[in-house]
Hints:
Elements: H1 2-7, H2 9-26, E1 28-29, E2 36-37, E3 51-58, H3 61-69, E4 75-79, H4 97-103, E5 112-115, H5 121-137, E6 142-145, H6 161-169
Parallel strand pairs: 3-4, 3-5, 5-6
Antiparallel strand pairs: 1-2
Amino acid sequence: VALYLLKNRERVLKPLILSLQEAQHCIFPCSLCGFLDETDPCLFCKDEKRDQSLLCVVSDVADLWAIEKTRRYQGLYHVLGGNLSLTEGIAPKDLRMASLLKRLQGKEAPREVILALSPTVEGQTTAHYVRQEIQALGGSAEVSTLAQGIPLGGELDYLDEGTLSLAVVKRKHFEAS
Ligand SMILES: [Zn+2]
């Protein structure tokens, strides 16, 4: 990448430097949810058409975009800023937890918190930690997590054991579509 940029100074490198400088000065984390945007509150937090009763907790802004791309979720978001990790040295104090717990208190608290964290050791450790903290608050919000199982278009005999066993355990009623 570095060689390509240096070979194309005027056409690629210069515009890239200008864009990065602009981003450095104009884009900041939203003080409510942690999303990166030019305004604070961000476009999601200030959109009154979104369902204020749903709050989706994600690790990173990239995960937020992935969910947003499905166009099936219309609630609010909260970006933790990472997952708990011993190897990477990420502790509870490094996550955006205080502002999350603050959002779950008061009159406008959401009725459901969706923990949309990765099915990795770090993601699930973080999910358990966040759930414990929410439950310690004693609020009335329901805590849910993403469904897990077979990917669309997946062949059963190609799936790993963990995914297939979870799909069997979490099987659901066969609904007419
Ligand atoms: Zn926001």
